[in-house]
Amino acid sequence: MRKKISFLLMSLLLIVSLTSCGGKQMLLFLNWGEYIDEEVLQAFEDKYNCTVSMDLGESNEIFYSKVRGGTTVYDVVCPSDYMVEKMYMNDMLEELDFSKFKLSGYNPNSDNIRTGVKKIFDDMDDNLKNKLKDNYKTGTIKNYAVPYLWGTWGIMYSTEKEGLEKAILSSDNQWSCLFDRNFLPSGTKVAMYDSHQHAYYAACKYLGYDNNADLPQSKLNTIRETVKNMKYDAWGTDNIKKDIVAGNIDVGFMWTGDFLYYYSENAANITMEAYLEKDITLNDVKDMIDTLTDSNIREYKAKNGNTYDIGFDLFIPDDTVAFCDNLVITKDSANKDLAYKFVDFMSAYQTASYINEDESEPISYDEEDTLTPSYSNTYYVDYDAVFVDVYNDIVALKDIEFEASLDEEFKDEINSGLDPYDSTLYWIFYDYAIGKSFDKYYPIGTTKGSILATFTRNYVNTINTTFNNARA
């Protein structure tokens, strides 16, 4: 779900916002594309009478170069774990004073932080201890970043391609489907994610190489030949999941969250289609979505004989890429007070806290008295929840009850001209599918995978050269 807005457009927006903020405080925020609920941004601006100017980065390396270059002095940035390490090592981050987090009460040692997030921070801590030796105090990295969203990478595949699922799930090497066509049915179309460091990680796992160390040229040559011989049908980003849904690609490596958004949306779409065709009633909805999202069944047979199927699924290798994207305040931030408020606000979940410091009434937000930014951003992006209470509430969406009154409400909305796929009922279908999907693909105690290594610029260039040569 990243990188949807062009950099030219974002640059123009940044210039406009810098010159038209009307005297308000301004926060300069460097983020991924489509990685925050815009309504939550608006609520922050309303609460603090400020303007947030959001620029977008296409990769962690671009984040680093933008902050390092200093042309625009960003206040808050959203880098992934290994880039937080690099920024820390190069003295680019503000050490956080957690007493300033008044709304969220964020504490890096809180029991409310998910097990997988804690493991990622422990891994970062170990990495830095190994690199900096006595110059690093164990646990220090927790004082420089607040986790925002996290998750894993997985292998999305079509369930319509005969024999493909069995080939993926039965292979002794869980990465074979991305690097060896001998394991795949004839004519299988494979896409690799167009991020050389992520492709490098996957190749190392497939070949049994250490993905955390600089490899000798002989092993880099083997990686190059492995990628070259695979002759990928596509190198892509957001388009991979769309191509699998459309049937143009059969297998692709991607963020689990990107898959999950399409998965839940398709479950809701298919259910609405069956409901409109009168193949199901409200009493059948839960059974239909439960069946569609059950990897052992998938195909839902309506009472009139019509069948429905999502058509794709995801396999997550045990040793996959794990990641955590974080909110950090730059050391050179020109507006640190507002930056603290921003990070605090986006980490908050306790709705009782949303009272203006200078007012006696809560801010009105979308006709509601309260706002839950951490929940809203997790729900909007579909990457995993950092906090246990946020996760539990999203998974609790699968406990929705489909009241009989929803039928009449739906009819009234349609009679008023509303698109069925934007109706209250549709979004309840979607919520139920989201609750099921989070429970299935983001199990509460998961600690799958490991984070990318922090390599030197020279070795990153070597990786890029290796893959560019392989693709050529």
Q: What can you see in these coordinates?
A:
With 472 residues, this protein is of the alpha/beta class. It is 45% helix and 12% strand. The chain has 18 helices and 11 strands. The protein has helices at residues 7-18, 38-48, 60-69, 81-89, 115-132, 164-170, 176-179, 196-207, 217-230, 238-246, 256-276, 282-292, 336-347, 373-381, 388-395, 405-415, 424-441, 457-471, and strands spanning 25-31, 50-56, 76-77, 146-158, 190-193, 234-236, 251-255, 300-301, 307-308, 312-315, 322-329. α9 runs parallel beside α18. Residues 1-20 and 351-369 have low confidence and may be disordered.
* Count of distinct strands: 11
By oligomeric state, this entry counts as single chain
Structural class: alpha/beta
Give the biggest sheet. Answer: 9 strands, mixed
Average pLDDT figure? 91
Shape: globular
**pLDDT < 50 runs, ≥5 residues:** 1-20, 351-369
Query: What is the number of helical segments per DSSP (H or I, 4+ residues)?
Result: 18
How large is the share of residues in beta strands? 5-15%
Radius of gyration: 23 Å
- Binned, the helix content reads 40-55%
Order of helices and strands: HEHEHEHHEHHEHHEHEHHEEEEHHHHHH
What is the straight-line distance between the termini?
Answer: 28 Å
